[in-house]
Amino acid sequence: MRMRDTRRSGSYAAFKIMLALLAAALAFPLTAFSAGGEIRTDTENCLICHRYPGMGRFDEAGVKRIYYINEMKFANSVHGKLKCTNCHVGLDKIPHTDIRKVDCTTQCHLKEPSTEREFSHTNMVEKYNHSVHGNSDPNNPKPFPEDLPTCTYCHDNSIRSPLEGVWGTSQALANETLSRCVGCHTKDHWAQNYYLHVTHRMRHLRSQAEIIKLCTSCHEDSEKMSRHGLDSIATFKDTFHWNLVKFKVKDAPDCISCHVPIGFTTHDIRPKYDQASSVNKRNRVNTCSNQGGIQSCHPGATDDFAGGRVHAYGTKAQLVVDGAQSIAVEADESLLSERARRDMSEREIMNFKILSYIRLFYKILIPMVIGFMVCHQTLDLLATLRKNRHNSH
Amino acid sequence: MQTSNTENTTMALSAGPPDDGQEPLYFIRLNRSEKIQHLLLMISFVVLVITGFMLKLPETIVQKIGPVGETLFFYRSLLHRIAGTVMIAVSAYHLFYLALYEAGRRWLVDMLPQFKDLKDLIQNLMYYVKLRDRHPEFDRFSYMHKMEYWALVAGTTLMSLSGLLLWTEWRWSKFVLDVAAVVHGMEAVLACLAIMVWHMYEIHLKPHKSPMDKVWLTGCIDEAEMKEEHPLHYQKIMADSALQHIYIVRPPR
Amino acid sequence: MKTTHLDQKLAKVRLRLAKILLIVPMVVFGLWLLKLVYLPNVGSGKAGTLRSSTADGGIFVKILSDQQLVPRGHFHMVDEHVSAQETYQVLCLNCHGTYPHRKEKKTRAVLNFHGGIMDCTVCHVRKDPAHQERYLVWLNHQTGQTSTHVEGGFGKYPAKIALVKMGAESKPVLVQPVSEGEAKAFLKLKEQFTPDQMARAKIKLHEGLSQKPVFCTECHKKDGYLNFSDLGFAPNRVDNLTSNEIARMIENYETFYIPKEIDFTGQ
């Protein structure tokens, strides 16, 4: 189990023993988990210090860095089988002056069973770099690359989740299924691990509201979006889709329902003019009807229905209609105006105008009608009171 | 297909012309069919308003509902569609009623806008600002009734059409649906405000009607009110025995 | 006669009340409808328009609006209480935050983790002969209960070692480096101080602190500043915590390799 490090000289033996004692001494009643003795991820004794919730600091950029590791949660996480130094490579000194940023493409000494090669996330990272969120094209570098989300922006070390079965509680389902495995795979723990590895991927890990919170954490920032030539996504909240999410309806359409439907991957989201995008015109009907998925939202969707605009019209449409001259175009926004002119078809602009006029019509009609009514009824009230007073005298 | 108003009334009153002038007279404003139409319209309207504007509740409030939200949303959608169907059905029935029933045809004719209505409006406003001593005399339906009725007809048509479009969304282009959604929302606001300002005032807030004008339940009003609010209609009825059979009811002896 | 008059009056009041009950919700609903038409974005949780988001103050406004306890991009799962506010805490944390040690690169994270198991005052306010009434005890910072046992598990510390003194009704109260009233007065006047006044005020504010905090090796040694046995540590743990090696490690806190050969959990 334990690695023997030959670099060590005996002179550190005292410290090792001391650290062992320190760990034991500070060991508050330990979790039921390690009491079982089966799993112990921390073969490198990092938790000597890192098990304390108060461990952390503010870094030089003012970012709060939490160095606390919850052993239970880590052991049950998707990376629970890994050693700390599998990802935090080359970390040998205390204090950790030799720290390097974790690189998810690192090969982590696990065998990937299908190829029998050392596992790493290289495939996903490469895919991601070619996606709309990546920055792989040296000829066409993206402005403000620091805005682009890194792996950990979206991913945390999530706890492996059991399947939510239709046959009962997830634990009952797990026991039912696992009882078939452990006959041959005699190590319960291994079977459990394997099972969770699969079930973790059989459900949406985040609720719709969480997905929307994640995506909007960037896409709702109109300042950030406009310097990439994008509309703020706040217009999503003008759609009926949002109402379903707001009321926490099961299977309500969030961002990935349309942008990453069945057959697409979150790591490979493409811009809408890319034919490989799920929201590209030629894939729209499929996306709306969600054929082949477990959910069928608009099964009868036609080209006409699916071809239209889903998010409400936003700043871009307004920019094109107003014309660049009427809005003082700041440096950050020039890209937005440029993209607006490219992205908005004449027909879309026409539609936007018509909708705006209808809105305007009502915005004028309502105060006129209601204003007349209020005046009329107020006068009527005064006249009636006047008459009553007159009659009673 | 001929039905007189009196046959429809539910009140335990005997109909007919005044015979001796001693009995208090009551005049029918809404017959039974009209009362039922009004009741159904009213219930469906309230349900539609509640279930419709629920969608516009701010996120922070909806979050407080918690996991019940989904169930709530399900019944919201269902009730909105049921109430919409009821409203459309009542409106459709009303069209039949206008065309096929004697009482309906009379309603339609009395409801048609006339030049006199414009004159009444101006004169009434002048009365309000004390430029005239008396308000104009109204027939069966005053200009206020007519405005509300025709606004209701227009509003219901728009709401029904846009609602049906949204209900059958996959058949239409997204733009048509966008237009329908905007119209549906704006028209709903207009209708609610109009009902609250115009209609609620008439039946709840007007001093001598407070706390509520019961005509939507009883269907009739007494002679004094008739003389005051619909003098022209009163005169017409008193001069025509056929109309008396239709509009006048008396309590049993 | 009189009663009928009263009845009439009552009826009138009831009518008024009914009218108000009808009008008020209608007016509120009506105004909300108008808001939906004319100010659809206000209070709907939607971000502002293109220009309004670039507010003055830049980074500080952003910091103010950042409510996240765990920063976005933090990878490992933490417990919710990691930055949770506690009811019974020393006033220091109100200004200095969860991670008060910042300067010394080598020790700051280690010192900060001690903040998760003990109050600032344990090291920064020395017990001295002048203050015999002060003593150290485990104090549940949620409930205020004291205990002489080591309580809770990792990730769930209901109690911290705290410096307390006996208060009214023989209930132990936290020793604060400065009185609550004075601290409040300081915060209130903070903006009015000239730089020199501020410097003086800060010295006075921190007057209750010991000039030299209790250093690591003062506790992590035999018969040191902290009496681990009194705090409910088992004898073997007391031995471990007070072993010479710990003290030496801390003093020679330089290049240090993590030993990987020994099972440290001692199970």
Q: Descriptors for this entry?
A:
heterotrimer, A: 393 residues, mainly alpha, two-stranded antiparallel sheet, two-stranded antiparallel ribbon, 4 strands, B: 253 residues, four-stranded antiparallel β-sheet
Topology at a glance:
The complex is a heterotrimer of chains A (393), B (253) and C (267).
Chain A lengths: L12 H14 L5 H5 L10 H4 L5 E3 L5 E3 L4 H5 L8 H4 L23 E2 L4 E2 L3 H8 L21 H4 L15 H12 L6 H12 L8 H12 L2 H5 L13 H7 L8 H5 L24 H6 L13 H4 L8 H8 L8 H13 L2 H47 L1
Antiparallel strand pairs in A: 1-2, 3-4
Helix pairs in contact in A: 16-17
Chain B lengths: L4 H4 L5 E2 L10 E3 L3 H22 L5 H7 L3 H32 L1 H10 L3 H14 L14 H25 L6 H32 L9 H4 L1 E3 H7 L1 H9 L1 H7 E3 L3
Antiparallel strand pairs in B: 1-4, 2-3, 2-4
Helix pairs in contact in B: 2-4, 4-5, 4-7, 7-8, 10-11, 11-12
Chain C lengths: L1 H37 L20 H7 L26 H5 L11 H7 L5 H5 L10 E6 L5 E2 L11 E8 L5 E3 L5 H10 L5 H11 L10 H4 L15 H7 L2 H8 L16
Antiparallel strand pairs in C: 1-2, 1-3, 3-4
Query: What's the average pLDDT of chain A?
Result: 79
What structural category arises from helix and sheet content of chain C? alpha+beta
Secondary-structure element series of chain A: HHHEEHHEEHHHHHHHHHHHHH
Principal-axis shape of chain C equals: elongated
Q: How many angstroms separate the termini of chain C?
A: 93 Å
Over the alpha carbons, how many angstroms does the gyration radius of chain C reach?
Answer: 29 Å
What's the story with the biggest beta sheet of chain A? 2 strands, antiparallel
Structural class of chain A: mainly alpha
Mean pLDDT of chain C: 77
Distance between the termini of chain A: 105 Å
